[in-house]
Amino acid sequence: MFAVHLLAFHFTKLKEDQITKVDRFLHQLRLSDDVLQDVAARFQAEMLKGLARDTNPTAAVKMLPSFVRSLPDGSEKGEFLAVDLGGSQLRAHQVRVSDDGKQSSQLESKFYPTPKEVTQGNGAELFDYIADCLSDFMDTRNLKQKKLPLGFTFSFPCKQTKLDEGVLLEWTKHFRVRGVQGTDVVSSLHRALQKHQDIDVDVLALVNDTVGTMMTCGYDDPRCEVGLIIGTGTNACYMEEMRHISLVEGDEGRMCINTEWGAFGDDGALDDLRTEFDRELDLGSLNPGKQLFEKMISSLYLGELVRLILLKMTKEGLLFNGKVSAALLTKGKIEMKHVSAMEKYKEGLSNTREILTELKLFPSEEDCVAVQHVCTIVSFRSANLCAAALAAILTRLRDNKKLLRMRTTVGIDGGLYKTHPSQKCLWGETPHTHSPKCLWGETPHTQAAKSVCGVKHCDSLEYGLKREAQGQATVKMLPTYVCGMPDGTEKGKFLALDLGGTNFRVLLVKIKSGRRRSVQMYNKIFAIPLEIMQGTGEELFDHIVQCIADFLDYMGIKGARLPLGFTFSFPCRQTSIDKGTLVGWTKGFKATDCEGEDVVDMLREAIRRRNEFDLDIVAVVNDTVGTMMTCGYEDPNCEIGLIAGTVVAKWPLREGSTYVEYEKMTSGMYLGEIVREILIDLTKQGLLFRGHISESLRKRGIFETKFLSQIESTCEDSIIVKEVCAAVSTRAARLCGAGLAAVVEKRRQNRGVERLQITVGVDGTLYKLHPHFSRILQETVKELAPQCDVTFMLSEDGSGKGAALITAVAKRLKNQNNN
Ligand code: BG6
Ligand code: GLC
């Protein structure tokens, strides 16, 4: 046993030493949050430059109009062919889109190689080859007798003036075919196809792969408005407002813009971030000085970048005893597939040894650890940069829509994204925080927590539901009097209040029914100062009414007596939908004279006191219920609402009340404090900070949850602190998952079914922003409730909207009853 520990210690030490060595050598490749924010800002400026007619000619990022104006609306049908050139392989597809209500699209595909003779030969040969492949595909699919329309995915920068025409501006990636630049590729393909007498295809559209990806995803998800490729090359497209595209006539609607972001930096805009390795790689490439952003990101280049780094480290005596092999000196010997294999979670180190041995480098244990870390740093930078540019696009989309927060979908494809062990995680934070990062790390499961928590929670649920237990039950199981879900007929204008999350918000929600069914929201966030949160009840409600008055003024609707839904995210005992007695404050609220009172009455009284406007308070709801309703509006299977939120831990904790104990172990507000307590403890035991407890560590609330999320995602921070954070948040996610598992399992048993398909509407910053919380939560539910197929539906700011929907449903049901 002792030997095992010694070995483990030795390995940890060895790992740390190697990691420090590589970190020091590659410090220029480690990009901080600030730098990434700056990259995003620079890319925003580049987009503007590319979009405007007068600056476009000199812009590096070309922002090419695609002449695709709308996303598929599901009414498309028929049979199509597609040929796809520019990724790692040439692909031919048969696409059948059926309009049978299920919106299904079937795909048959065949892949063809693109050898060097094709990618670096002459134009006529290239287009003949594509036509030959297509003819072969039609042969194998028995399609030769049919006349079919063809879509041509051509993944290179093309200047289009219409959908079926595109002049190649420049070859990129591994293509350099003579005689094509400056010509229309659609007519070249058309000419080559005409040589095949036995087939009859009509080239209808030319699209970039990013646009194709966005359209494909848009077919399933109408919210998709960005297409992204991270493969051999990298690029993104998005839907831009026509009024901002001065290169195309017309101001109405939107058009998809192919950004060609691979060329970001070609004018020197990223020179300060490019390293000697980037410069060397560029000089040895097919297109020096071009596609500089792409060369830091995409799979065609990352292997070579790793090779150049290893070569320099070896020459400096930092690796392989200073001995360079012929293979290490050879361009292209390390490919992306090797980098991915070396970074694999479990087999990574043995893969590294194998790959280095094949390169005749005779690696030691230390060498393997160091090389693996080099790969990690190169991939991290790739994912970070990609996410920074994506954040810029998302910010632009959000600004275009004049929204404070935005819910959107990004369609994504490409070998690097799909197969690299950690590329995917870059999504964790991007859309919300604009400080994108790549995060990884697996946390092992604890079997014990699983069984104990699951069962215990289930018992508590049963107990809480019993009438005689309501007084003592710790899990209160409070009835909400929300009895109906939205059925799509709700309409009108509603006000909503959302109190109890990170922010206090007042919202105006406009609901449309019928074919133009939609929910539009306008909202304003108001601060609630600490002295009000902990002052008297009257002061708190007067402040709330003051905020409402301000909002009504701001929206110009003071005269209208609108129905109001009040999201009040504290435990309330309800006797009807518009009556809720506060059981007890949680989350830092402590206003006096509220516990035991009906909060709707308190709000009505405050409105009366102000005597400036009147409102029809229809419903009081918890944020979980609001979230469930919002998701239920989209997905009728949604029967559960969950909040895993963060309230910044700057308020003193409330001690000694039983009903918040579970929350203290799971919600964002408390996790930072738990971490601080543990760090103090470890320091007292001499295990951290040389036993010295600093003044700031003594201060309550120094660890905000967002800080906790960041610590888990950076390598520089002490391994111990990182471990503590990981342990605390994993426990929170596991406990939350156990509770949820009990709830879904109960639904399954109540329904008496073998398997249950159920959707959980979920919201809260901890769920949305923490790098691992959502994954661990979902895995726990899967483990503990194996007979339930649970879909998690993220509801952005849903509880305000939900309160309005509940109000709308309540109004509808009331009208029905009256009738
Ligand atoms: C494919 C798309 O899935 O991904 C192509 O169909 C795209 O259009 C390609 O070019 C990009 O990935 P890779 O790794 O093949 O370059
Ligand atoms: C290159 C091409 C671009 C393509 C991308 C991904 O950047 O120039 O058109 O979308 O690679 O394949």
UniProtKB/TrEMBL annotation:
It is found in: Cytoplasm, Cytosol; Mitochondrion outer membrane. One of its GO terms (molecular function) is fructokinase activity. It is an enzyme of class 2 (transferase). Residues 22-219, 459-633 form the Hexokinase N-terminal domain. It catalyses: D-fructose + ATP = D-fructose 6-phosphate + ADP + H(+); a D-hexose + ATP = a D-hexose 6-phosphate + ADP + H(+); D-glucose + ATP = D-glucose 6-phosphate + ADP + H(+). Coiled coil: none annotated. Residues 226-423, 662-809 form the Hexokinase C-terminal domain. The keyword Acetylation applies. Its main location: cytoplasm. Pfam families: Hexokinase_1, Hexokinase_2. One of its GO terms (cellular component) is mitochondrial outer membrane. The keyword DNA damage does not apply. InterPro entries: ATPase_NBD, Hexokinase, Hexokinase_BS, Hexokinase_C, Hexokinase_N. GO terms for biological process: glucose metabolic process; glycolytic process; intracellular glucose homeostasis. Its EC number is 2.7.1.1. Keywords: Acetylation, Allosteric enzyme, ATP-binding, Cytoplasm, Glycolysis, Kinase, Membrane, Mitochondrion, Mitochondrion outer membrane, Nucleotide-binding, Repeat, Transferase. Pathway: Carbohydrate degradation; glycolysis; D-glyceraldehyde 3-phosphate and glycerone phosphate from D-glucose: step 1/4; Carbohydrate metabolism; hexose metabolism. It is a peripheral membrane protein. Catalyzes the phosphorylation of hexose, such as D-glucose and D-fructose, to hexose 6-phosphate (D-glucose 6-phosphate and D-fructose 6-phosphate, respectively). Mediates the initial step of glycolysis by catalyzing phosphorylation of D-glucose to D-glucose 6-phosphate. Plays a key role in maintaining the integrity of the outer mitochondrial membrane by preventing the release of apoptogenic molecules from the intermembrane space and subsequent apoptosis. Belongs to the hexokinase family. Monomer. Interacts with TIGAR; the interaction increases hexokinase activity in a hypoxia- and HIF1A-dependent manner. This is Hexokinase-2.
